[in-house]
Amino acid sequence: MALLLQRGPGLALKQAGKLLDETGELFVTLLEGLRRTWDVRTWWGEFIEQCWFMIRVTTVPLLLIAIPLGATISLQVGDIARQIGAESSTGALVVAGMVRQVAPLAAALLIAGSGGSAMTSDMGARRIRDELSALEVMGINPTHRLVTPRLWAASVVSVLLCSMVILSGTAGGFYFNVIQQGVTPGAYFDGAAALLQISDLGVTLFKAWMFGLTAAAVACMMGMNCEYGPAGVGRAVTRATVATSLLVFALNYTIETLYTVLVPPKF
């Protein structure tokens, strides 16, 4: 019994130390990747390739998620609004929800699930084949050559996906709210324009950019530090996806809280 009590705190301290090490490694990877951003010539080609890859693997799933999501929100909100006699406010609630919360989170989770998983497995495969060590032997920093373009590709694509979620979700909500439930198009868009501000769209795109940057940093860090062997790469992919999801929700809460305090909502 005494042995178990002794091992319990020791194991907890070991796990806490490992978490702190990974947090520090994440910040080092992110900052070192951004440090050589100015040297665009060394990573421009890889940036274009990564952008095209992530657009290819995320666009169709995004549309399949965003349109039904906007329609579902519109149906649920429309039913509640009809019960209280406020059908004209449905568009405002749907569009505001898509712009402020749903769009950046959906884009970030798709980046983490599709692009981030592939990014982690790619970096992990390079590690177990000793390609990262070979780059270092040739005097090339692997973080500058491989991580920097992936950071910017993920952040740029995340902003584009966020815009697509807003447009497709709003279109799905428009169809079910206006065509199916009989709300006038003017009331649908006027309510949204009265509730939203330009700064709402700005902070949404900023959140999408931050989420994409975080997803790429976590994916690259996990892949570059995975255990050797296929099993190590698989575990790194799982850990990267889970860690990105947790960080995205934490960042979303922090940014939204600061924005609500600094910029009063529009009434």
From TrEMBL:
Q: Which chain regions cross the lipid bilayer?
A: 53-75, 151-176, 206-224, 236-255
- What single Pfam family name could you report for this chain, choosing any that match? MlaE
Q: Which domain of life is it from?
A: Bacteria
Q: List UniProt keywords, sorted A-Z.
A: Membrane, Transmembrane, Transmembrane helix
Which InterPro entries does the record cross-reference, listed alphabetically? Permease_MalE (IPR030802)
Q: What is this protein called?
A: ABC transporter permease
Its lineage reads:
Bacteria, Bacillati, Actinomycetota, Actinomycetes, Streptosporangiales
